[in-house]
Amino acid sequence: MHREPDGHRAKKSLGQNFLQDDNICRKIVDALDIGPADRIIEIGPGQGALTRFIADAAPGRFTAVEKDDSLADLLEAGFPSVEVVRQDALKYPWAELTEAQPCKIVGNLPYNIGSKLIWDIVSTATGMERAVFMVQHEVALRLTAAPGGKAYGGLTAWVKNFCAPRYLFKVPPTVFRPRPKVDSAVVLFIPLPPDSRPEHPEKLSRLLKLLFQQRRKQISTILRKEWSAGTEQWFADQGLDPRLRPENLSPEQLRALSVVF
User: How many CB atoms lie within 10 A of CB 163?
Assistant: First the structure.
């Protein structure tokens, strides 16, 4: 297990890979576009690589969510103005971040929870003004994929019904300690207007999980047990062949289908 100069051991169970490159840190914080009154939430600040640049740019409220108690201790000692919340980010009350509590969210997300965390945040944190996340490169490609490709899946369709994700840049393993075995990438998320978000997210979630667990099959085959006249009519109205595969429908089409199937 890799030991850093401060004595902290990177914990594989928590997916800890500490960013070491100041230029990349600056680029990530610049993409957050911090204003003087912004509230910032950083996920998994680790040893504070991003934290120190955010603290310099954010005179407003700044919260760091850190699960590792030893790292939380270091953060509290090194950044007394930062509110350190000792919590698993998957259990953080993202839904409490409403329009009344606007915020910007940033983080070098652990590979093992990145997709799940993004799924939850974009759909429940309605006060999110923008987010910048570093994730595994393969996940970044999935998040920003176009319909019809192999990278396009349930995560893509879900996120694009709440945000406009944009691939910013690739990050090599060499800038982390310990080094991961794969490339990372940084993705920007800009929320869609409230009237463009799903009215029935639970229906969309159910449909996406159903379809993309069997993505190589035709939609009519996957939904055979739940096929209805309404579903049949929807495909006819859209001029779409129900024998298409899930990856051939756009995020907007999948949302519309989720309401009628």
Answer: 23
Helices (H), the chain: 22-32, 51-57, 69-78, 114-124, 137-143, 154-160, 201-212, 219-222, 229-238, 251-260
For residue range 146-201, what is the model confidence (pLDDT) as tens digits? 999 999 999 999 999 999 999 999 999 999 988 889 999 999 999 999 999 999 99
Mean pLDDT (the chain, rounded): 92
Distance CA 54, CA 60 (A): 10
pTM given for the model: 0.92
Instruction: Show contacts of 8-12: CB within 8 Å, 24+ apart.
Output: 8/47, 8/70, 8/71, 8/74, 10/177, 10/178, 11/68
Q: What is the DSSP letter of 180?
A: P
Sequence letter at residue 64: A
The alpha carbon of residue 46 and the mean position of all alpha carbons in its chain are separated, in whole angstroms, by 18
DSSP code per residue over 214-259: TTTS-HHHHTGGG--HHHHHHHHHHT--TTS-GGGS-HHHHHHHHH
DSSP classification of residue 3: B
